[in-house]
Amino acid sequence: MVFLQISNWLAAILRGTIFSGVIFSGLLGVVFASTLNLALAATPETWNQWRGPSRDGIDSGPPWPEVLSEQGLSLKWRVELPPSYSGPLVSSTLVFVTATENKSREVVYALDRATGTERWKKEWDGAMTVPFFAAANGSWIRSTPACDGESLYVAGMRDVLVCLAAETGDEKWRLDFPRQFKTALPSFGFVCSPLVDGNDLYVQAGASVVKLNKTDGKVLWRSLKEEGGMMGSAFSSPIIASLAGKRQLVVQTRQELAGLDLESGDILWQQKVPAFRGMNILTPALYGDSLFTSSYQNKSWLFKVESAAGSYRVSEAWNNNAQGYMSTPVIIADHAYLHLQNQRFTCIDLRDGTRKWTSKPFGKYSSLIAQGDRILALDQSGRLLQFKADPNEFQLLGEVTVSEQDTWAHLAICDNELFVRELNGLKVFLWSDSSLPQNEKK
């Protein structure tokens, strides 16, 4: 519509006026720049995978409002849903969420982004019960799906990956990893969130790391094979990173970090990461040619990857006593902002591992999104926090209760909309500076 209006306007001008080449050229430049700006402004921001479009928790969308307050958050809509751990995905028109229904079936919903109205629903048998400490928080679906605009890739608890048409919910293909590879069911379910890269799809499933053709689900390679079951199923999710001059897949298994060749799956390097009961849960965080990670009841590390004579080696740059848990940090200006096992936030200087500050306790878990020098943190108790990315001190800028239920799923933000997956529902808030005096609003 924007392009059509500008085209009609330009045609009307050309019919009534003769321009010199210079003026006409300048006019075209203005028109096309205006067209691009208007078109971009008219295109809603999206949230298409685990930790957002860049898979690093950094929001590159429009500037956030200056203040986080109850007055500045208004509920746009809410829908009641069965429970889930997985975060919502947001397209230009739809919101995708998963759920476990009646402890027996897994469900995918596509909701209208503007109203919350259900557009389609897809379900299958597939629930399971997780063991030990994990059962205390529920056995519902865990993995956050991925969407490439045309297809939605959903990981079910029983180690199954289902590809659905994003617009209709029609099933395109399905891969049952235990059936395909004769592996044991992962005791804690399919936890890894799928990663789409061009026509390729990467998951940590089937007691291994697997590359698939995203169009038909064909297995292209399988690497880092394990036994599955209790200790051989991943808690982490992969990233793609350029390290030592090579673009590669980076994965964290229950025991180690590794870099894999994207085309062949060959192991480029490996590094042990000690963790209590193999609880390496964080998604690896990229910092230059290095990777940050932190494990349960252990430490935090920065590992540097280097290449020489066609081979790769990894070395420990430093370690410190910060014990991460489930929350993956955001990296801002040489510093990692991390939520810890002891429920506090900490800031770590990635250049030398120095801990700059540690906050008071908050929730058991926080999903983090950053923009500029500010960080949003949704903790599991339903509190949304905003604090400053300042290595000198912890500065809490705002705190709002957005749910009376548990909120274990990752927060999503698009434009001025906040998407909060609470235990039994999805809430969408509009975030504005309505709490500022009129003359201070931007």
Protein model, in words:
There is one protein chain. Helices cover about 10% and strands about 40% of the residues. With about 450 residues, it is mainly beta. It has a domain at about 1-45. It has a four-stranded antiparallel beta sheet with strand order 1-32-31-30, with no helix packed on it. The chain has a four-stranded antiparallel beta sheet with strand order 2-3-4-5, with no helix packed on it. Helix 1 packs antiparallel against helix 2 (about 20-40). The longest helix has 22 residues, at about 20-40.
Furnish the topology, listing elements before pairings.
Elements: H1 2-16, H2 21-42, E1 73-80, E2 89-90, E3 94-101, E4 105-112, E5 118-125, E6 146-147, E7 151-156, E8 160-165, E9 171-176, H3 177-181, E10 195-197, E11 200-205, E12 208-213, E13 219-223, E14 239-243, E15 246-252, E16 256-260, E17 267-272, E18 285-287, E19 290-294, E20 300-308, E21 311-320, E22 330-332, E23 335-339, E24 344-349, E25 355-361, E26 366-371, E27 374-379, E28 383-388, E29 396-401, E30 412-414, E31 417-422, E32 425-431
Antiparallel strand pairs: 1-32, 2-3, 3-4, 4-5, 6-7, 7-8, 8-9, 10-11, 11-12, 12-13, 14-15, 15-16, 16-17, 18-19, 19-20, 20-21, 22-23, 23-24, 24-25, 26-27, 27-28, 28-29, 30-31, 31-32
